[in-house]
Amino acid sequence: MDTTEAFGALTAALDYPMFVVTAAAGGERAGCLVGFATQCSIDPARLLVCLSRRNHTFRVASRAELLAVHLLGKEQQALAELFGTQTGDDTDKLARCAWTEGPSGTPLLEGCPNRLVGRIVDRFDAGDHVACLVEVVAARFADPGPLLTFQAVRDLEPGHRA
Question: What is the pTM of this model?
Fold first, then answer.
């Protein structure tokens, strides 16, 4: 097994939590399923969120001031499928779920009580993704119970165009 294959096998074995990230800019709203997100600072409270360059949400988020990051519970498989298998280029995903308008018009998914809204303080190249450094400006938490993780969604076909 070469290094690339070993890296792929190693990362495929991980089981990290899944998120839906939403953004708004210039009257446009978008959201996508994200697996690459992690806390990177305690004080200030910051999260690193990586968005694929190939999806519609990335294009909206590249003009946005804020991102909303929604932690998914295990029972939210259908929401993961909506935001992970459809592309905003063709589908208004937000028309297919309940949401409210948050700060700066950022969509907040009503079915996701575990979420944060953060100001994008920096963006940088992370390969085929762009890493957004997000400083938390608002957060909500309720016991999420079991989380929806990568292993539960690994077989979803991405909605964005290759």
Answer: 0.93
